[in-house]
Amino acid sequence: MMDYVSSLEYLRSIDLTMERYERTRWDAYLKRSGLAIHFPFVHIAGSNGKGSTSSFIYRTYLNAGYRAGLFSKPFLYEEREMISLMGREIPRDRFASYVERMKAGFQEFALSAFEAMVAIAISYFNDEKADIVVLETGMGGRLDATTIEGSRPLLSVITSVSKEHTRFLGNSLEEIAFHKAGIISPRCPLVYGQIPEEAETVIIKVAKEKKSPAKQVQSCRNVTDGDGGIYFDYGKWARLFLPSHGRYLVKDASLALASLDALAGSFPYDEGNFRLALKEGMLPCRMEEVPPFLFDGGHNPEAISELAGSLATHAREGETVVVYASFKDKDVVSSLKALEPHVDRIFLTTFPHKRAMGEADFRAKGVSYRYSASPLALVDSLRSTYPKARIVITGSLAFASYMRRAILLRRAK
Known about the structure:
The chain is an alpha/beta fold. The protein has helices at about 5-15, 25-35, 50-65, 90-110, 115-125, 165-170, 175-180, 195-210, 245-260, 270-280, 300-315, 330-340, 360-365, 375-385, 395-410; strands spanning about 40-45, 70, 85, 90, 130-135, 155-160, 190, 215, 220-225, 230-235, 235-240, 290, 295, 320-325, 345-350, 390-395. It contains 15 helices and 16 strands.
């Protein structure tokens, strides 16, 4: 019997993140295995905002009493975080049993770790007879493993479209939007966020071709900072409260509310369910304050711009110092330019990951900020040099979560 540790070791051995993006093996596996989705689901794609939007929807359904599930990516620390049901991650023994039972098929078709995780999640939600599942894409949508022919979602949601993963999704917003629009299913309603016009044109065209009614989310009103967070109005809802000063999270909350309203006829909920979800559904490393640190997983220029705007709006006494690390495939030049006007100092670093940028990678892109190979030593130095500073740790969700864990472990000792 495979145990939990060995199941993780196996999945990590087949990790092909950013190495392969196609469907040939996955489609062959689906055909052979007969794997299909047998539960109602909401399908969510987007460049930014997928995680928080998904979490707010999921938490609302939990609060309303549904047997709700969530599949989301990426995870912070362990793979099973990607699969949750009824507010709990898939148990370790169940996770290991699925890997053991399905491993032969994974190996036969040379699936990636993400494809294997999708297969495990679908099997788990099927077996547990979930009432409704929020299913988040990994990348894009059209070729994503969560997009399965013959499985029709109740609702498709596209949170945002910006330039990302251009090696696989294309170099233009139109090409990227075309990939995101791959989650739109025939005659299935679509909710989408505030996106660039060229991307919206593509999405509306695909929706019309599939006879799928499309609705853009409304803008929030009366967005104001208060003690411990932000108040805002949306539609008929007034004085909604988010326990964060991240202005971009208001957009995610409005997308969640628009999505819930679109399905309210089949899955009713009440105001209290959603208000509680805003408190419970906050994810780590999304404008998360652990003074003097602020952790944010901004990984592309759009996300970093949103972070910069939130920093400017939520000003505080003392300097704002950024500790930045990123993956090699990211547009770090544009991201750092977005940060520059809103912070006092920027420092570069790296972290233990095979795709993390090192000093030579930054210099090759013309980035000249001071660099340290040790992020924890850098943080210690900054705390000493700038004792009143807010230290913002960002550039990648993987980096922010790595630093968050290391810092919190230190405090627990």
